[in-house]
Amino acid sequence: MAQLEHSQEMGMHTEQLRGRTQQTFFSPIEDENFTYPWAYEVNFNKRAELDASDMSATEINLKLRDLMKSGHGTIVLKNPRARHGVAVGILNKLNLIVEGSLGYFGCGLVDGPNIRISGRVGWSCAENMMAGTVVIEKNAGSTFGAAMRGGDLVCKGDVGARAGIDMKGGTLIIGGRAGAFCGFMMQRGRMVILGDAGINLGDSMYDGTIYVGGKIADLGVDAVPAEMTDLDKAWLDRKLSQYGLKTPNGVGKMQKIVAGKQLWNYDNLEPTEKKLVL
Amino acid sequence: MALNKVTAKTANKAGGESEDIDHFLKTEGLDSNREKEIGQHIGYRYDVNLVPDYDRLTPFLKTYMETMGWDDLNWLEDVHMGYEEHRAAVFDRNINGWVTVPEDMELPNNQQDRDMIARELLIKFQMSKRHPMVDLRKAYAKFD
């Protein structure tokens, strides 16, 4: 209630939004700032260790916030014991090293940090990720990187079904195999699968690109093969080398999948089942 | 050299069916049947499959990557220069609106260079203390 009153005092419920151009807010020659105005000033060389053995997920997240507030730029999180919802909502630059595994929704809603996890992760890891890097050394569950918007999300092992569902940007790299319906309703960004991909890959994708190093069980509706360019190959070489990953047959032999873009006009076809026309 | 060749080819594609990179600055930009039907250019889908050419990074973007501890452009890889109402602009996901490129800024004749300018401009905007999100955060944030 207090928040509502505060926002009304600031005029946010009476302001009329006109047009879409926002240039009046901003001058491109003003002082340069490389982090969000509200971000904590942290030093990567200032390191802290956090033993989470007896802490709840909420306590862990609040402690991470306190450590960033006191300028710690490198935090080692020990014994997370696969708790759910750990390391979420970090809107700061940070090196976070997780020694162990995370449960569901780990590293969700992050914007900026570099996170390395030595174990496994459960469902929906890095959901809605905005920026930064998240690297998982072992396997990940279903809906890996759901709705992610930016950043690099890397699983060096296998992932479950629907990785990158509703993906709106960023790069999702899977070192092993991927389950069914990966890239479902993908709208932007790039997904790299170095192993085999399950059935219905890229089903109903609107845009974005999927690269596959292994076999594709089946393409989904409106997902079509495309030609690899030199820029694609250079980008893949560069990106995979950053994470020490390789595709067995070289990037030149990877398959590139994009949207056929027939669904862009789907609203015209609504009276008809889309599968009748595609 | 091969990269530049591909870049130029894709840049043309990024400007629509036209070979002219300024197509959207000179015309209405209503090219597809869908755009003609709705009377509006579908403005933010500029060749999202165009991956960035890192040789064209601006000094500002290099410093930004070093500051954040990233080896690459990270989320900015998806940011491309678009066009709104005959003006070059970059789309800001946080405000769900366009930030127009200053009129006096000269645009290079290459989509990759234009994209780098857009990325730099977007960072300067999003990290500005005058970004609308700063006020929204004051109003709605649960934590300090």
Write the layout of secondary structure elements.
The complex is a heterodimer of chains A (278) and B (144).
Chain A: H1 2-9, E1 43-51, H2 57-69, E2 72-78, E3 95-99, E4 111-117, E5 131-136, E6 152-155, E7 168-174, E8 188-193, E9 209-212, E10 223-226, H3 230-242, E11 255-259, H4 274-277
Chain B: H1 2-14, H2 23-26, H3 33-38, H4 59-68, E1 81-84, E2 87-92, E3 97-100, H5 111-126, H6 132-140
Antiparallel strand pairs in B: 1-2, 2-3
* Shape assignment of chain A: globular
Give the terminus-to-terminus CA distance of chain A: 50 Å
User: Helix and strand succession of chain A?
Assistant: HEHEEEEEEEEEHEH
Helicity range of the residues of chain A? Answer: 10-25%
Low-confidence runs of chain A: 15-23
Radius of gyration of chain B: 16 Å
Mean pLDDT reading of chain A: 89
Distance between the termini of chain B: 50 Å
Characterise the protein shown here.
The complex is a heterodimer of chains A (278) and B (144). In chain A, strands 1-2-3-4-5-6-7-8-9-11-10 form an eleven-stranded mixed sheet, covered by helices on one side. Chain A is 14% helix and 23% strand. In chain A, helix 2 links the parallel strand 1 (43-51) and strand 2. Chain A has 278 residues and is of the alpha/beta class. The model of chain A is unreliable at 15-23 (pLDDT under 50). Helix content of chain B is 40%, strand content 10%. Chain B has helices at residues 2-14, 23-26, 33-38, 59-68, 111-126, 132-140, and strands spanning 81-84, 87-92, 97-100. Chain B is globular and about 50 Å long. At the A-B interface, helix 1, strand 5, strand 7, strand 8 and helix 3 of A face helix 1, helix 4, strand 3, helix 5 and helix 6 of B.
